[in-house]
Amino acid sequence: xxxxxxxxxxxxxxxxxxxxxxxxxxxxxxxxxxxxxxxxxxxxxxxxxxxxxxxxxxxxxxxxxxxxxxxxxxxxxxxxxxxxxxxxxxxxxxxxxxxxxxxxxxxxxxxxxxxxxxxxxxxxxxxxxxxxxxxxxxxxxxxxxxxxxxxxxxxxxxxxxxxxxxxxxxxxxxxxxxxxxxxxxxxxxxxxxxxxxxxxxxxxxxxxxxxxxxxxxxxxxxxxxxxxxxxxxxxxxxxxxxxxxxxxxxxxxxxxxxxxxxxxxxxxxxxxxxxxxxxxxxxxxxxxxxxxxxxxxxxxxxxxxxxxxxxxxxxxxxxxxxxxxxxxxxxxxxxxxxxxxxxxxxxxxxxxxxxxxxxxxxxxxxxxxxxxxxxxxxxxxxxxxxxxxxxxxxxxxx
Length: 398
What we know:
Elements (H helix, E strand, L loop, with lengths): L27 E5 L2 E4 L4 E4 L2 H4 L8 H11 L12 H14 L5 E5 L2 H16 L3 E5 L18 E4 L9 H5 L7 E6 L14 H13 L3 E6 L22 E4 L10 E5 L1 H9 L12 H16 L2 H22 L3 E7 L2 E6 L7 H10 L2 E2 L1 E3 L4 E4 L7 H18 L1
Parallel strand pairs: 3-13, 5-6, 5-7, 7-8, 8-9
Antiparallel strand pairs: 1-2, 2-3, 4-10, 9-10, 11-12, 12-15, 14-15
């Protein structure tokens, strides 16, 4: 635990907010690009980009402008009344996911998009099992976390390191598996570990050969996070469904489930009925369109790949210098620093020390690592300042 919910780390008591997770109490009142300011006027550099989703930073003027203009028109429509903005956004999402003339539904959260993909795979395949990697989070609705063994087969991705995939996969009953729910690394429950490409490709091949579907969960790896538009693009596999999280809205709650035309046709012929209060809302569609346009016009995916490579090099320099650092790893702008068990520093102590220096990072005490998911728009000088702070902390605590 980073905090027990009672301390006021530069903050104030929050006695009426249900505590569902660790809380670091500080009252942020404004944000601009990668900086947040609290009620005391203290500035922090956010290396989490909110909940890993503000890929273009806080208060982006173009996105704010589109939001304000659309609010003056119409924000929300009933599910029976899809609109031209939603159609246009669907086309753009299908374009960036490489699903061409497929179909797309705009939703409100990454968890919902993943769950839509999970249920679509079950519905189309009619198979009792789904396959995923054991460290996948998948969704807040329960598909991840405590997975039932009569519904899920979980595979340890590290088992494929340097191994023949056949030796690992031959015992899996692919004839009973309706889908491979693939999280391309860097998830909330994983410590920024990317499964071997040869293993992923062989799983996808076997699942499809047996009549199952491949669902890519891109909630934490999509929208340029890994140096490409989507994490699955590092693996030379073509998903049947792609779940995109709220990075699609730069943090605004719009997500998407995009699918190949054959999948959409099977769902529609099967009498699919799905209704959600903010499905295909015009405001969410307008935001998604602007986010995609900005990322394409200003080439933020490419810039993220370049800066991410520099960032990883700096973290590896820390690993070489400080014995307490067990590993530095990353892909694009999702990176992690893992500490050795028994070292004088832990992920929790480093988290606190960085917080006091004005840096926000993610922290996992279970796997003893800190994680960085900054906006693609973060300045190189901020990366250098963070690494310098880490160097000072590790030197002092040795």
